[in-house]
Design brief:
Blueprint lengths: L1 E5 L2 E5 L1 H6 L16 E7 L3 E2 L5 E9 L5 E6 L9 E4 L4 E4 L12 E8 L4 E8 L2 E2 L7 E2 L3 E7 L7 E7 L12 E3 L1
Parallel strand pairs: 4-14
Antiparallel strand pairs: 1-2, 1-9, 3-5, 3-15, 5-10, 6-9, 7-8, 7-13, 11-12, 13-14
């Protein structure tokens, strides 16, 4: 079953409709509980030079002994979410943004089966652009940022990274990961 939200109203789509949209029509197990999964947020480096692309990865793994399902969005950016905040916790980017301007993801969800030990992974790339406080878009200021990700109805994860000033430290080769 898929969920469609239009103008604040939620519509549940049957399996046949969800299949047409690319979701499997097989019977799905119960939704995963927070204790049955491990969510990870990672970046490919701990520090980035100005304007350098930041590769953000979100993953969820079934750590239980039984199959369960998670809600995934048909639209990139909605379940799992990809949000970047500055050190004051103000949002500077999310995956639903278009050309560094705030946008909206359509909220169509489908159930994805995770077998025991099974994982789902997806990646987004952020160009360090943001329209927060500026028109036209500009690059964010050097500083500490956090990437937050979550799956619909499940606790998420976050990881912190640095945007270095011009002439500062380049990308480190160590992978940064956090819960």
């Amino acid at each position: 079953m898929a969920v469609l939200t239009l103008c604040g109203s939620t519509v549940f789509l049957g399996a046949a409709t969800a299949s047409a949209a690319g979701a499997a029509s097989e019977s799905k197990p119960a939704l995963c509980t927070a204790s049955a999964v491990h969510v990870r947020a990672t970046t490919d480096h701990t520090s980035y030079g100005p304007g350098r692309s930041v590769r953000l990865r979100s993953s969820i793994t079934n750590v239980s002994g039984t199959p369960c399902s998670v809600w995934l969005g048909l639209d990139p950016g909605f379940s799992p979410s990809f949000v970047v905040v500055n050190s004051r916790k103000a949002e500077v980017w999310d995956r639903c943004w278009i050309d560094d301007h705030p946008g909206a993801c359509f909220e169509i969800l489908y159930q994805h089966r995770l077998g025991p030990g099974g994982s789902y992974r997806t990646v987004a790339v952020w160009d360090q652009g943001s329209t927060t406080g500026s028109r036209p878009p500009r690059r964010v200021h050097p500083g500490v940022y956090s990437f937050l990700t979550y799956y619909q109805y499940i606790v998420g994860a976050q990881v912190t990274f640095t945007i270095a000033p011009a002439g500062g430290a380049g990308p480190e080769t160590v992978r940064r990961t956090a819960r």
